[in-house]
Amino acid sequence: MSAVTITAANFENEVMKSDKPVLIDFWASWCGPCMMVSPLVDEIAEETSAVKVGKVNVDEEGALAADFGIESIPTLVVIKDGKIVKKSVGAIPKQEILKLINV
User: Fold this and answer.
1) Full-model pTM
2) Does the annotation count 89 as an active-site position?
Protein backbone atom coordinates (compact mmCIF):
# COMPACT_ATOMS: atom_id res chain seq x y z
CA MET A 1 0.00 0.00 0.00
CA SER A 2 1.33 3.44 -0.81
CA ALA A 3 1.91 6.21 1.70
CA VAL A 4 -1.10 8.35 2.63
CA THR A 5 -0.92 12.14 2.50
CA ILE A 6 -1.80 13.27 6.01
CA THR A 7 -3.56 16.62 6.44
CA ALA A 8 -5.30 18.34 9.32
CA ALA A 9 -8.58 17.29 7.69
CA ASN A 10 -7.86 13.53 7.63
CA PHE A 11 -5.49 13.28 10.64
CA GLU A 12 -8.13 12.02 13.06
CA ASN A 13 -9.30 9.18 10.78
CA GLU A 14 -5.94 8.22 9.27
CA VAL A 15 -3.78 8.44 12.41
CA MET A 16 -5.72 8.65 15.66
CA LYS A 17 -8.28 6.01 14.68
CA SER A 18 -5.81 3.70 12.93
CA ASP A 19 -5.96 0.08 14.08
CA LYS A 20 -2.21 -0.27 13.49
CA PRO A 21 0.86 1.86 14.22
CA VAL A 22 1.38 4.84 11.91
CA LEU A 23 4.77 6.01 10.61
CA ILE A 24 4.58 9.70 9.67
CA ASP A 25 7.24 11.37 7.54
CA PHE A 26 7.32 15.17 8.07
CA TRP A 27 9.02 16.60 4.98
CA ALA A 28 9.27 19.49 2.49
CA SER A 29 10.09 19.53 -1.23
CA TRP A 30 13.03 21.94 -0.74
CA CYS A 31 14.69 19.73 1.90
CA GLY A 32 17.58 17.67 0.51
CA PRO A 33 17.70 15.09 3.33
CA CYS A 34 13.90 14.71 3.02
CA MET A 35 14.35 13.75 -0.63
CA MET A 36 16.78 11.02 0.46
CA VAL A 37 14.41 9.60 3.10
CA SER A 38 11.17 9.89 1.11
CA PRO A 39 11.84 6.99 -1.32
CA LEU A 40 12.80 4.76 1.62
CA VAL A 41 9.53 5.58 3.37
CA ASP A 42 7.67 4.82 0.13
CA GLU A 43 9.45 1.44 -0.14
CA ILE A 44 8.45 0.56 3.41
CA ALA A 45 4.84 1.56 2.67
CA GLU A 46 4.83 -0.86 -0.28
CA GLU A 47 6.61 -3.69 1.54
CA THR A 48 4.76 -3.94 4.84
CA SER A 49 1.17 -3.94 5.96
CA ALA A 50 2.16 -4.02 9.65
CA VAL A 51 2.09 -0.22 9.79
CA LYS A 52 0.26 2.56 8.01
CA VAL A 53 2.65 5.04 6.39
CA GLY A 54 1.77 8.70 6.04
CA LYS A 55 3.48 11.86 4.90
CA VAL A 56 2.98 15.43 6.06
CA ASN A 57 4.24 18.28 3.88
CA VAL A 58 5.24 20.85 6.52
CA ASP A 59 4.82 23.75 4.07
CA GLU A 60 1.19 22.80 3.42
CA GLU A 61 0.38 21.57 6.94
CA GLY A 62 2.29 23.99 9.17
CA ALA A 63 -0.23 23.79 12.01
CA LEU A 64 -0.04 20.00 12.08
CA ALA A 65 3.76 20.14 12.13
CA ALA A 66 3.59 22.68 14.95
CA ASP A 67 1.26 20.38 16.92
CA PHE A 68 4.03 17.77 16.81
CA GLY A 69 6.76 20.27 17.70
CA ILE A 70 8.56 19.67 14.41
CA GLU A 71 11.61 21.94 14.30
CA SER A 72 13.83 20.04 11.87
CA ILE A 73 13.02 17.87 8.89
CA PRO A 74 12.92 15.14 7.95
CA THR A 75 11.31 13.94 11.16
CA LEU A 76 9.83 10.47 11.41
CA VAL A 77 7.21 9.85 14.09
CA VAL A 78 5.62 6.53 15.04
CA ILE A 79 2.17 6.77 16.60
CA LYS A 80 0.47 3.82 18.25
CA ASP A 81 -2.94 3.99 19.90
CA GLY A 82 -2.95 7.76 19.42
CA LYS A 83 0.36 8.32 21.22
CA ILE A 84 3.86 9.08 19.94
CA VAL A 85 5.99 6.04 20.73
CA LYS A 86 9.13 6.84 18.70
CA LYS A 87 10.63 9.84 16.94
CA SER A 88 13.69 10.32 14.76
CA VAL A 89 15.06 13.60 13.39
CA GLY A 90 17.28 13.76 10.32
CA ALA A 91 18.00 11.44 7.42
CA ILE A 92 18.45 7.81 8.47
CA PRO A 93 18.97 4.62 6.44
CA LYS A 94 16.14 2.22 5.69
CA GLN A 95 17.31 -0.27 8.34
CA GLU A 96 16.99 2.41 11.02
CA ILE A 97 13.49 3.30 9.83
CA LEU A 98 12.54 -0.37 10.04
CA LYS A 99 13.87 -0.47 13.61
CA LEU A 100 11.62 2.49 14.44
CA ILE A 101 8.56 0.54 13.36
CA ASN A 102 9.83 -2.84 14.62
CA VAL A 103 9.01 -4.70 11.40
Assistant:
1) 0.95
2) no
